């Protein structure tokens, strides 16, 4: 029997998740709220994000998580669906080149978590593809 080891390093967990995400096909992604930001719809996504959420210390009670892919150039805002609200978090999972992902005007590195309390302004450089995880609070 093999024993699985868990890493509490968000960067390592982001890398593990990124390795899986880059192998997904276009059929595993769908437009999020009609934008060019795409939401992962692969059935295995829930199990794959647990390590990153734990390593990042994100509270999970009353929260919902989404995995997104965004191709640049892109400048826009990310808002929850009508079923969710703020506060939330965004964690950059990966980017092909550096720097490529700005969140609310701040350059963000893979594995880095930022709290959001309103619509998040996202900027992705031209010719870039980034993956990120966002959590929102479920409305009661």
From TrEMBL:
This is Uncharacterized protein. It comes from Fusarium floridanum.
């Amino acid at each position: 029997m093999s024993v699985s080891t868990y890493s509490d390093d968000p960067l390592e967990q982001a890398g593990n998740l990124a390795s899986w995400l880059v192998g997904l096909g276009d059929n595993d992604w769908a437009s999020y709220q009609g934008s060019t930001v795409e939401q992962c719809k692969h059935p295995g996504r829930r199990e794959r994000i647990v390590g990153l959420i734990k390593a990042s210390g994100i509270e999970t009670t009353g929260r919902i998580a989404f995995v997104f892919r965004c191709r640049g150039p892109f400048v826009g805002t990310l808002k929850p669906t009508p079923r969710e609200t703020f506060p939330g978090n965004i964690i950059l999972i990966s980017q092909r080149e550096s720097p490529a992902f700005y969140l609310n005007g701040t350059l963000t590195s893979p594995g880095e978590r930022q709290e959001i309390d309103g619509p998040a302004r996202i900027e992705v450089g031209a010719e870039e593809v980034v993956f990120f995880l966002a959590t929102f609070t479920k409305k009661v």
